[in-house]
Predict the 3D structure of the following.
Amino acid sequence: MMKAVLFDLDGTLIDTAADFIRILQGMCREKGCAVVDAGLIRTQVSEGARAMVKLVYPELDVEDPVFLAHRQRFLDVYGADIAVDTDLFEGMYPLLEELESHQIPWGIVTNKPRWLSESLLQALNLTERCAVLVCPEDVSKTKPDPEPMYLAAKTLQLDPKDCMYVGDHPRDIDAGRNADMYTVLAAYGYLPLQYKDDLTAWRADCIVNTVAQLHDAVRQLVIAPHAAAELRPQQA
């Protein structure tokens, strides 16, 4: 019986793309170049700040000091106004509320830096509700390595196999599988262009196309067994 649900952050639990789009398109206007398409930006969110800023400055090497300065400016602007147009994906609040009503913990394992992750959770009033937050600073190896998954399970005092992990990038699914967690591919998220054509190749245990489908899967695989166990007579 699975006893917790863990989420990737951007593109899985929280729809952050609108704020990234706002900032990156503003950088395009400052540069005087064509505005990057919003849809293209969404496909790069899960690849991180470097990939997103590269859309605006394709001519610069990612190790160029000028590029690094633009990347840092992007992060600073984002951090200063982290949730202007950001919120949980539609339908996610009821899912979290149902988990909480059954006292089933939920948490986050992300490659997003801790200072940004914590600021985002605080802005959305999720800090106290999130049972565990694992960020790159907490581990020696990030996803797709299973180390962050093991740390999340250990913090919850659970065996990793008792956790469901939901993500929208192959590294999420790989990390969950490597830790022997039940993996769910959030196909409603920010699927990278190079991986979106064959989702079965990710080898997730389950694929959901909407948050409603995710909610159904969580009800069936986590909440219902938990509720049944609560009703089961205690062994003498």
Summary: The chain has two domains: 4-15+88-231, 17-80. Residues 4-15+88-231 form a domain with the Rossmann fold fold (CATH 3.40.50.1000).
